[in-house]
Automatic annotation (TrEMBL):
Pfam families: Pept_tRNA_hydro
Protein name: Peptidyl-tRNA hydrolase
Catalytic reaction annotation: an N-acyl-L-alpha-aminoacyl-tRNA + H2O = an N-acyl-L-amino acid + a tRNA + H(+)
UniProt binding sites for tRNA: 14, 64, 66, 112
UniProt signal peptide: none
Family per record: Belongs to the PTH family.
EC number in record: 3.1.1.29
Keyword Ribosomal protein on entry: no
Annotated organism of origin: Ruegeria alba
Residue numbers marked as site, Discriminates between blocked and unblocked aminoacyl-tRNA: 9
Length: 231
């Protein structure tokens, strides 16, 4: 069994915040892959289903971001999981908007949700880092992550969420490379072999009209006889 944890803050006022992209990713996975309904458990919301051959539990902690580890630790102990069975999907300031990376273990880099998870289960869990960009100044970070995504972000955000959902079965199977490939097919689809593609609305070029066929020799003879007759 695998446990996928999406990080965010509970409640409608936070639902579209940059900090809640982990919740958004789990919602898309649950919808696209036919998971059961969300229900309250482990101080959060859970949904159960399968990704490929793997049974997977989705968990959205409702303890607020800086106490996320309480919920994660409770679920891990209940199912007798190891921390390496857990993948956390979270916002990442140090990646440009729309960039996604997977990581096994490591530090929390000051992320309050990850810091709390470290405190409760240790550092040996996998992460999916979902880039949201950085506001440029340290003192602006809190307001930035607790602000809704801008309208201009909608296209790349949708592509990222779809890509994460497309690759979720590979993520559950532990195949990070194939997961990243699925994400890339949404966020950076391959170009045509010529490097450009004809716009869908472009009018196809019309073929030049074919030249009139030259008359055959027997046609010219018949015509000459007709002309001679009326001289």
């Amino acid at each position: 069994m695998r446990l996928f944890v999406g990080l965010g803050n509970p409640g409608a006022k936070y639902a579209r915040n940059r900090h809640n992209i982990g919740f958004m990713a789990l919602d898309r996975i649950a919808e696209d892959h036919g998971f059961g309904p969300w229900r309250a458990k482990f101080q959060g919301q859970i949904a159960e289903g399968r990704l490929g051959s793997e049974k997977v539990l989705l968990l959205k902690p409702e303890t607020f971001m800086n106490r996320s580890g309480q919920s994660v630790g409770e679920a891990m102990r209940f199912y007798k999981l190891d921390s390496t069975d857990i993948t956390v999907l979270h916002d990442e300031l140090d990646l440009a908007p729309g960039k996604v990376k997977v990581k096994a273990g490591g530090g929390h880099a000051g992320h309050n949700g990850l810091r709390s998870i470290h405190d409760h289960i240790g550092a040996a869990y996998d992460r999916v880092r979902l880039g949201i960009g950085h506001p440029g100044r340290k003192e602006a970070v809190a307001g930035y992550v607790l602000h809704d995504f801008a309208r201009a972000d909608e296209d790349w955000l949708d592509n990222v969420l779809r890509g994460v959902s497309d690759g979720a079965p590979h993520l559950a199977a532990g195949d990070g490379a194939r997961f990243m490939n699925a994400v890339a097919l949404r966020t950076a689809p391959p170009r045509s072999s010529t490097g450009t593609a004809r716009p869908p609305s472009a009018t196809p070029e019309k073929a030049a009209p074919a030249p009139e066929p030259a008359p055959r020799s027997d046609d010219r003879s018949a015509l000459q006889k007709l002309v001679d007759r009326f001289k």
